[in-house]
């Protein structure tokens, strides 16, 4: 959840969504105050696991309401049949929770292999590790790269 919140802050600064839940104009105003940010396995375009929880219902805590399937239309790897039945239309690389295309915010079609990646996020560096979603932070290669990126890597100004 932290990656989604960080991305929102970078994209919109401190501006909140409108009263009808519409997003404010995209200005990347919050990025002016941030030197570096790491998004680790952030589901920028949704997550199949999250969707499954929404389909089956999900109550994150006993005092919170149960979530319904209201967000189905926002998940790019899914299709709803006319019968109302939900089907996975494709499987793709990822960490078992978040598709690689979702983490990248990749706007290419599934059968399109052109480079570069078309994303709404202006990436400066991307790294993939072959680990499970929760295993990423326990990977020594991940820890080394995070420390290097945050503490040693030259600053781009």
Tell me about this structure.
- It contains four helices and two strands.
- It is mainly α.
- The protein has a two-stranded antiparallel ribbon with strand order 1-2.
- β1 (78-80) and β2 form a beta hairpin.
- It is globular and about 45 Å long.
- Mean pLDDT is 75; it is low at 71-82.
Short account of what is shown:
The chain has helices spanning 2-12, 48-56, 100-104, 140-152, and strands at residues 78-80, 86-88. The chain is mainly α and 157 residues long. It has a two-stranded antiparallel ribbon with strand order 1-2.
Question: What's the structural blueprint in terms of helices and strands?
Answer:
Elements: H1 2-12, H2 48-56, E1 78-80, E2 86-88, H3 100-104, H4 140-152
Antiparallel strand pairs: 1-2
Largest sheet: 2 strands, antiparallel
The figure for the number of domains is 2
Radius of gyration equals: 17 Å
Q: Stretches where pLDDT falls below 50 for ≥5 residues? A: 71-82
Order of helices and strands: HHEEHH
Mean pLDDT: 75
- Spatial strand order of the main sheet: 1-2
Share of β-strand residues: under 5%
Shape: globular
């Amino acid at each position: 959840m932290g990656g989604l919140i960080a991305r929102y802050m970078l994209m919109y600064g401190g501006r909140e969504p409108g009263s009808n839940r519409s997003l404010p104009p995209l200005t990347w105003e919050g990025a002016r105050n941030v030197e570096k940010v790491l998004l680790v396995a952030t589901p920028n375009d949704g997550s199949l696991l999250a969707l499954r929880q929404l389909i089956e219902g999900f109550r994150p805590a006993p005092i919170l309401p149960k979530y319904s399937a209201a967000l189905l239309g926002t998940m790019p790897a899914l299709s709803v049949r006319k019968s109302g039945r939900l089907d996975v239309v494709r499987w793709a690389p990822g960490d078992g929770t978040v598709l690689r295309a979702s983490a990248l915010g990749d706007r290419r079609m599934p059968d399109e292999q052109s480079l570069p990646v078309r994303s709404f996020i202006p990436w400066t560096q991307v790294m993939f590790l072959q680990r499970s979603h929760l295993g990423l932070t326990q990977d020594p290669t991940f820890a080394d790269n995070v420390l290097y990126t945050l503490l040693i890597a030259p600053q781009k100004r």
